[in-house]
Design goal:
Pfam family, one: PQQ_2
Number of helices: 0
GO molecular function, one term: transferase activity
Keywords: Transferase
CATH superfamily: YVTN repeat-like/Quinoprotein amine dehydrogenase
Order of helices and strands: EEEEEEEEEEEEEEEEEEEEEE
Structural class: mainly beta
Oligomer: single chain
Helix content: under 10%
CATH class: Mainly Beta
Number of domains: 1
CATH architecture: 7 Propeller
Protein name: Glutamine cyclotransferase
Strand order of the largest sheet: 1-15-14-13-12
Amino acid sequence: MNIRTKERAAVRPAEIVREYGPFAEDGKVHGVTHDGRHVWAATGATLIALDPASGDTVRTLDHACDAGTAFDGRHLYQIAESRIDKIDPATGAVVASIPAPGHGGDSGLTWAEGSLWVGQYRDRRIHQIDPATGAVRRTIESDRFVTGVTWVDGELWHGTWEGDESELRHIDPADGTVLERLAMPQGVGVSGLESDGAGLFYCGGGGSGKVRAVRRPKAPAA
């Protein structure tokens, strides 16, 4: 199902509350996820886990990781070239692999509702896919390049990054309508995105090699 964004919401500045790193071995952070305790960042050849309180790196897993990262409560999922690897975080072992829908053009990755959600950067799309087979269940279209993707409290958010402009966008998963826009400072990009399930988004900083925590806006009072 292809659904187009119908309108845009007013843009507000993103509130960056903390920066971590730089960490990246290749100069980039590609994807991020949160396992309920640690923030994981994909840095090219190594997945690192950092303690968001101290900023210390507490785990490293040697694994190809050139795009989005996700966590389903037990396993990590990592985009590597044209596949998505399911990884046991305790051992680093790959327990399964499925094809990525973008065949190498994939960007963000997150887990929600028993599905993986995969951003397609230049195709400006988000796919909901079967985590066991990689089959596409539905597609949401955007009018901007899609980087990171995350769900929190029933809200679907994605990152955009075009030129020196980057935003976090809350969209309606039913029809793609843009509901909220948070603009990053000029020249600060979002390469990956994940919520901590509470009040923060963690954003991969692309070529900066950094991870940034951005405050999630409070929902309007009912």
